[in-house]
Known about the structure:
The structure is a homodimer. Chain A folds into 2 domains: 241 residues, Aldehyde Dehydrogenase, Chain A, domain 1 (3-Layer(aba) Sandwich), CATH 3.40.605.10; 180 residues, Aldehyde Dehydrogenase, Chain A, domain 2, CATH 3.40.309.10.
Amino acid sequence: MLxxxxxDHSPRTATFAAYDAVTGAALAPRFEEAGPQDAARACALAAxxxxxxxxxxxxxxxxxxQRIGLEILELGDALIERAMAETGLPRGRxxxxxxxxxxxxxxxxxxxxxxxxxxxxxxxxxxxxxPARRPDLRRRHISIGPVAVFGASNFPLAxxxxxxxxxxxLAAGCPVVVKGHPAHxxxxxxxxxxxxxxxxxxxxxxxxxxxxxxxxxxxxxxxxADPNIRAVGFxxxxxxxxxLARVAAARAEPIPVFAEMSSINPVILLPGAARRRGAQLGxxxxxxxxxxxxxxxxxxxxxxxxxxxxxxAFEQAATxxxxxxxxxxxxxxxxxxxxxxxxxxxxxxxxxxCLARGRPGAGAQPGQAALLxxxxxxxxSEAALRQEVFGPASLLVRAxxxxxxxxxxxxxEGQLTTTILFEPEDEPSVAALLxxxxxxxxxxxxxxxxxxxxxxxxxxxxxxxxATTDARYTSVGALALQRFLRPICYQNLPxxxxxxxxxxxxxxxxxxxxxxxxxxx
Amino acid sequence: MLxxxxxDHSPRTATFAAYDAVTGAALAPRFEEAGPQDAARACALAAxxxxxxxxxxxxxxxxxxQRIGLEILELGDALIERAMAETGLPRGRxxxxxxxxxxxxxxxxxxxxxxxxxxxxxxxxxxxxxPARRPDLRRRHISIGPVAVFGASNFPLAxxxxxxxxxxxLAAGCPVVVKGHPAHxxxxxxxxxxxxxxxxxxxxxxxxxxxxxxxxxxxxxxxxADPNIRAVGFxxxxxxxxxLARVAAARAEPIPVFAEMSSINPVILLPGAARRRGAQLGxxxxxxxxxxxxxxxxxxxxxxxxxxxxxxAFEQAATxxxxxxxxxxxxxxxxxxxxxxxxxxxxxxxxxxCLARGRPGAGAQPGQAALLxxxxxxxxSEAALRQEVFGPASLLVRAxxxxxxxxxxxxxEGQLTTTILFEPEDEPSVAALLxxxxxxxxxxxxxxxxxxxxxxxxxxxxxxxxATTDARYTSVGALALQRFLRPICYQNLPxxxxxxxxxxxxxxxxxxxxxxxxxxx
Lengths: 521, 521
């Protein structure tokens, strides 16, 4: 069942199954475990494909990305049904996620076509300059090389085989080797076939894309350690991301690991907003907490309120909404076990109060929601209260005053998002808190909820450690491409030897900076 | 003798001296060793200055950079004379380097003013979008936070206290803490005073810049380990860079280390060029090898020639020129010792031939040049022959054919530069080699020599590991700023709360991307 370039035809013994998220039953068929030898083969093929991928003209690269989208759509309902079975996510969500995945490929296709990412820069020769002539210098971005991608369990389409990291890496001209997530092995394999179909349809080298299904840490480590791999994209747990980062750092030639790991996404409710629309915000809060069984990297794990402001309406509405919330199946048994343990641990701390539990739910691995509360003092004194609990749980933190909220924010680890709910009369407080929020997160949201990450030019889905391993990047949006590029300068080469992107006649019609002045294409 | 923010007034016992590079004599005065407590103090002040630095308007930031240049010029000849004594570099070189340092500050001032580095990006709200409204999303780059800079011994001005890393970090809005290089402690202290003068003249917080003189590895490690430091710039040896990278990786919150370390900068001489202008190229080669006693990160450590092409004129001219070359004083006794050991080790390998030694020279630490030769087979079989020997030595490598040259290039570690010398009839060979060169280096030079790094928009002074720790960046040129920036996204914030760079009326007149379309300012 190995797909594509990594497949060889030696007999295999180890196999694994994916499981139905509602019933817990194994789903047919079983999948063959890829091993280190498969990883090595896929990486060698990726290295062989590098030159073609890197020099593939923007228009052809864009066509390839769009073709992947078409091939995914052609999988039809079989893809949605398999994903529903494996993840327990509802049809509407998965259809939306498929649209997002295809839209993301289209978005990167448009980015690739425009070509600003190449950052074509020309400093022409200055033959008369003293004390010495300045040579002709030209710079472009090229692909960093083959990229290993580890998909996330919580977005079986948009952050998996042909998801954000794969789309960005292919857009950047990198061959990609995906380590499939075992929690949605069937979904992954279907999508991998779609990508392989696009590779073939576009006449690209077979090593442009490989897919390695498997359940072992050994496979992932072999992939990251492979000398042909030049960068790693990962979305998942902190333990998983840091383990891969350690492998990457121990290589003879270390490589960057872009891991998006954990975040509790603090939300601050200011008094004006609490007073004017507390009840509505309380309902919206729980809708965000329980969305997708809370299995979002941007799920609001903490809401900070001022204890002497009028937050009763907010708290009552939130408590009631959470109490009524149905348990949705969680992605895997292991995730549910970790979630239950996480909630129990939070509740075991003195001073942590349970405001409400959601309905218990049926099935193999339901995620019963939880709304807890604690004082800011306690929250600040116990580091364990500030750790992500992945699932539909959230902690209301009651602070004495605005200054204490600032102290809480300063004490937190790096975050993907921070959110602030306010009315015009709260703006001075927002202004006072913004520097704190800015130091801590990649995205600051006003009057909204952190779940929901737009694919667009301005998005930052990243943030200071340990939200990600590198705050200088984002895994969503136009800038996501930049993780997989490096600059290269050509000094004094004639047009006949320069890459098309840097030739004087600009055959690719790129936006370029010439002698310091930016020219649109 | 501690300069600036890091100075406290407790009594100090440990002191150290700088040495005259020609006579080896200790120079007055002695300098007080900064310790870990000084590093902690400087870093705390830097953290306190962060907000001011980060939000300093581009025009004021540019004025600050220019003011540093003026203050350096105001030091007058005292700076040049002290640098001459400490480094053994001639007046002309140091005056040129001062001009480069001041010019680099001016260059970054112009970059900061234009504001493209902010990458201001606005995706306006789409209230009608289905299935859900798109919120207003705006992105800018902000400073990564306080930066630690470790200067290089070989450029006491341009890559030291107010050199490339400091200028880029200040331009990016980062407070800077410089660990002074003990090989030019007096030069460093003078320049640090100039920077402090500019900080005061511009009314900036004292923590904007601190300077820590010292000789101990403990001091450097304390600086990199300090939790307030967010990134490190380093130029120097591979051992030094990797030691700092290990400290950074072991932090509770790892940070990036941008270390520019070692490179042998291979040059390929193609037959047409050897035939048509071999003698001139031979002379130019040795001029590049011996420039500044070979103490350049871009010194051409290896020239690859085709053994059956007409390279006699080239080799004879190079041999004669090297034989006549005068020994220049090296920067420190330790560098000279390492250089002599490096040459001896190269010569101890069977098959390595000594084509010429330069004149022995007088003084405490002369750098006697060396031109060696070896076959490509031998060069490929002995990894030790492919290591940088810092100083005026170079190795002529005789290859069988073009394909073997490609194999040699593929076998090398990452490089700052690769160079190719050719005539029009060689162009097919250049085209065949370019993919190899491109994978290996940050800059590809045609018909020139690698020494000489322009400060301009298109420059890349970086390259794959171990030339640097991160091939995605450059330490020279406009792009150098990007090491010290991170993106941040503001979702749904009103103009009244947005930073000036992202307000709808564009008060800073920045170039911006709005709804995907790039607008010049």
